[in-house]
């Protein structure tokens, strides 16, 4: 730990003894929320000697090499060092850890080949080395790892070694995105008797997939290879219809507002809605009944349900005409009495946005029978390599309180096939020509002017010709740029809806200024007042009100950055993040389409003119929700994101007062292999961490600092700076520390709070002060912040006031070098405090909120 500059958490380093506290108790290792972490076994020598058996140092930006001293932990069973910028070669001394059962070093920055000494780890069951920088093939000594159950790597080269088949315990083999060149017909898959998961996508594999790979195989991904499917009938991977169509499995349970893309990247599925009084979170239902009229009965043994809106997306399709077949069978209603008492399942069906079935009733269409298969066939035209099928429940059919499983869309299988009679070729002929016909005024030219007129005509024609050619060139260049940007967007996996400029012009009443609800980092934000082909104002087909964010021409963010933001936002979906519905890039100013959150921003709710009257319980849940959203951005999302502009006006509240982090205009992708990002300052005074304001040193801890300020604002019911107050209270952070040192921290609470949990309030204030420590290393990661807020982890004692506050107090009383034009002034987000443009040089010390 000392080599890496880490300090042992107090929970397992009691009185200087590492093997104490949670390190030696019965707490759950897998669900322990902290890093670093150790686990000890103190049973040796009549419980007098302790040995470290588990060590985890993940996602802590640990820099350097693995110290050789690690080989002394010979009792180690579990070693996790992933998600750090560790470098150098993997020490061969790791081969001395012969008791090791699990080794995880994914997403590090090692070099060279794997050492042969890894073959000494004969007890090893799990090996995770994805994206760790290693080169070359696996060493042959890996064949000694007879107990290996899980192996994962994406930098392996060469061929699949023969000895993999001798690893008879192997259950999960993941070698995707490698450089494997292999003919699958030469691989004896029969040796992989225990294999349940096989991922070999994005390699250079060829040949025909064998009929039988493993009887226990459940999940397989061979996407992006040159492989011909054999006649495998492994139903856990896919279901084959009677017409030899392979149906890819759709067995993932979705959340209240979530989506996923299948491993083959052929289909995307999204679900919106929550089953009222749901007894479980299952949206896949099963039946073992025999289905009438079903040629392929197996297709109807499962069905996906949704309480509101269910969408399927066909991805990467060639443009042309397709036949869409949807297959249904009602089996949630087992008998007539239940059917009559609960109502009917009625929903609408849209294909490519066109209404195909209004008030579709599965059971009625099947002649009033359950367990009877029916299908619906439609034609659809794909123009942008993308197909959408939307099943939407509009609230009809259920007269009583809706019960889980007895209302909303339900579907068993679907298929999309090219129309057999149609040949289609994308062939666009563009003809651009110019026909200059010079004209002169009527009458006889004056003597001597003919040569001049001819010269003038020729000159004019030349100028017009050059101008025309230049215009054509610029037009073609613009078209190509736009086509490239659209291609980038359409290639996004799980991409959002793409709106046309004409749709959004109608929706915003031609971007009428009266519909502006605020000004964000991209420019004005409009609330939709009309949408084409709809009778309801301000609604999308599935009942959503939307906010359209228009990229202003004066914005520093161009279209390429716009596409980057779309990719970023599309990749992250969370309950506490503002949902991106779609975008538009065919207008002069690109547009983003967000969910509209009618309760506005947090700054309006706590120190604006809102009538929400937030009590303590509401404020605490808002704080906790923001923390969870940031924890997702920093530590759980597939891409690690630093927001850079966390503030009260960038937190929006939905109808249930659930907080959602907005405005990713300043978000910057953060490379986990770097300790920080050196960047121009971009943020808002009052929320800037000292290291970011002074040196442009950006890490996740800058967001943690800003969140600490937002926490204090939320509990105090005021902005971080208020020049109308007495001198000692102008700066909220300074005042909070003053009251904390006087053991009167609760005095900073909003006087409008009539009742609150004092212990909980004091804990929130302590967490906020912990988040706003001067050194980023002293601030906790957001996952720990969540644990501290919920009481799962004790809040460490805040020892001293940060030095930057002491420096403020030692200054000559100069509180005016930052103007008050932004102090506490906000508008709805879509309304904001004044923002800082990127600085060309490091500024002097900037007081938070001054």
Automatic annotation (TrEMBL):
SUPFAM superfamilies linked: L domain-like (SSF52058), Protein kinase-like (PK-like) (SSF56112)
Spans annotated as Disordered: 824-850
Positions of transmembrane segments: 454-476
Keyword NADP: no
Main location: membrane
Keyword line: ATP-binding, Glycoprotein, Kinase, Leucine-rich repeat, Membrane, Nucleotide-binding, Phosphoprotein, Receptor, Repeat, Serine/threonine-protein kinase, Signal, Transferase, Transmembrane, Transmembrane helix
The protein's enzyme class: transferase
Superkingdom of origin: Eukaryota
Subcellular location: Membrane
GO CC field: membrane
A Pfam family the protein falls into: LRR_14
Membrane topology: Single-pass membrane protein
EC number: 2.7.11.1
Name assigned to this protein: non-specific serine/threonine protein kinase
């Amino acid at each position: 730990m000392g080599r890496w500059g880490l300090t042992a958490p107090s929970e397992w380093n009691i009185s200087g003894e590492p093997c104490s506290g949670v390190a030696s108790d019965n707490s759950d290792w897998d669900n322990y929320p902290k890093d670093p972490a150790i686990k000890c076994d103190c049973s040796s020598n009549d419980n007098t000697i302790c040995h470290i058996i588990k060590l985890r140092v993940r996602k802590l930006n640990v820099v350097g090499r693995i110290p050789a001293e690690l080989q002394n932990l010979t009792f180690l069973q579990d070693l996790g060092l992933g998600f750090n910028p560790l470098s150098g070669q993997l020490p061969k001394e790791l081969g001395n850890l012969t008791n090791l059962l699990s080794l995880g070093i994914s997403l590090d920055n090692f070099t060279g080949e794997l050492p042969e000494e890894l073959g000494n780890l004969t007890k090893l069951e799990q090996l995770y080395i994805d994206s760790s920088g290693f080169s070359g093939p696996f060493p042959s000594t890996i064949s000694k790892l007879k107990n290996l159950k899980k192996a994962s790597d994406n930098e392996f080269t060469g061929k699949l070694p023969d000895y993999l088949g001798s690893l008879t315990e192997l259950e999960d083999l993941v070698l995707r995105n490698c450089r494997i060149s292999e003919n699958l017909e030469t691989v004896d898959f029969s040796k992989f008797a225990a294999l349940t998961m096989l991922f070999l996508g994005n390699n250079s594999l060829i040949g025909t997939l064998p009929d039988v790979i493993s009887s226990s195989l459940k999940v397989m991904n061979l996407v992006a290879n040159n492989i011909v499917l054999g006649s495998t009938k492994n139903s856990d991977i896919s279901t084959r219809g009677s017409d030899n169509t392979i149906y890819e499995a759709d067995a993932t349970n979705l959340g209240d507002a979530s989506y996923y893309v299948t491993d083959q990247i052929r289909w995307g599925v999204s679900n919106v809605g929550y089953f009222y009084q749901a007894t479980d979170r299952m949206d896949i239902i099963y039946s073992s009944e025999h289905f009438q009229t079903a040629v392929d009965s197996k297709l109807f043994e499962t069905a996906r349900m949704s309480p509101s809106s269910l969408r399927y997306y066909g991805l990467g399709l060639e443009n042309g005409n397709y036949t869409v077949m949807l297959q249904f069978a009602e089996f949630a209603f087992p008998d007539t009495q239940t059917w009559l008492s609960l109502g009917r399942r009625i929903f609408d069906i849209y294909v490519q946005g066109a209404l195909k079935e209004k008030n579709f009733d599965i059971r009625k269409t099947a002649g009033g029978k359950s367990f009877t298969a029916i299908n619906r066939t439609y034609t659809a035209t794909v123009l942008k390599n993308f197909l959408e099928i939307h099943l939407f429940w509009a609230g009809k059919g259920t007269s009583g309180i809706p019960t889980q499983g007895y209302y909303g869309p339900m579907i068993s299988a679907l298929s999309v096939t090219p129309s057999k009679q149609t040949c289609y070729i994308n062939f666009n002929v563009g003809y651009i020509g110019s026909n200059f016909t010079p004209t002169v005024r009527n009458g006889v030219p004056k003597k001597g002017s003919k040569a001049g007129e001819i010269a003038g005509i020729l000159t004019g024609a030349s100028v017009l010709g050059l101008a025309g050619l230049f215009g054509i060139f610029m037009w073609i260049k613009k078209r190509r740029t736009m086509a490239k940007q659209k291609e980038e967007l359409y290639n996004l996996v799980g991409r959002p809806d793409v709106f046309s400029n004409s749709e959004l012009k109608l929706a915003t009443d031609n971007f009428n200024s009266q519909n502006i609800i605020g000004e964000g980092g991209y420019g004005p934000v409009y609330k939709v007042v009309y949408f084409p082909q709809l009778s309801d104002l301000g609604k999308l087909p599935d009942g959503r009100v939307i906010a359209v964010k228009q990229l202003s021409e004066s914005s520093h963010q161009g279209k390429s950055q716009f596409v980057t933001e779309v990719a970023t936002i599309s990749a992250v979906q969370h309950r506490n993040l503002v949902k991106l519905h779609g975008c538009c890039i065919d207008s002069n100013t690109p547009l983003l389409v967000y969910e509209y959150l009618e309760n506005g921003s947090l700054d309006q709710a706590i120190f604006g003119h809102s009538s929400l009257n937030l009590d303590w319980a509401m404020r605490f849940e808002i704080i906790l929700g923001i923390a969870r959203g940031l924890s997702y951005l920093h530590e759980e999302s597939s891409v690690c994101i630093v927001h850079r502009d966390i503030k009260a006006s960038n937190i929006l509240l939905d109808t249930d007062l659930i907080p959602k982090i907005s405005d990713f205009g300043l978000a910057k992708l953060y490379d986990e292999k770097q300790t920080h990002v050196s960047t121009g300052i971009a943020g808002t005074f009052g929320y800037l961490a000292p290291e970011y304001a002074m040196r442009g040193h950006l890490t996740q801890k800058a967001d943690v600092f800003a969140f600490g300020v937002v926490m204090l604002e939320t509990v105090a019911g005021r902005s971080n700076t208020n020049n109308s107050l007495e001198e000692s209270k102008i700066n909220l952070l300074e005042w909070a520390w003053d009251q904390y040192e006087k053991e009167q921290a609760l005095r900073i609470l909003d006087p409008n709070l009539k009742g609150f949990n004092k212990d909980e309030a004091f804990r929130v204030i302590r967490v906020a002060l912990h988040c706003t420590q001067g050194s980023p290393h002293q601030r906790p990661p957001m996952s720990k912040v969540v644990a501290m807020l919920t009481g799962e982890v004790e809040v460490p004692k805040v020892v001293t006031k940060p030095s930057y506050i002491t420096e403020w107090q030692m200054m000559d009383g100069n509180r005016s070098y930052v103007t008050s034009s932004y102090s506490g002034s906000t508008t709805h987000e879509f309304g904001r405090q004044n923002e800082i443009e990127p600085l060309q040089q490091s500024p002097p010390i900037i007081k938070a909120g001054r």
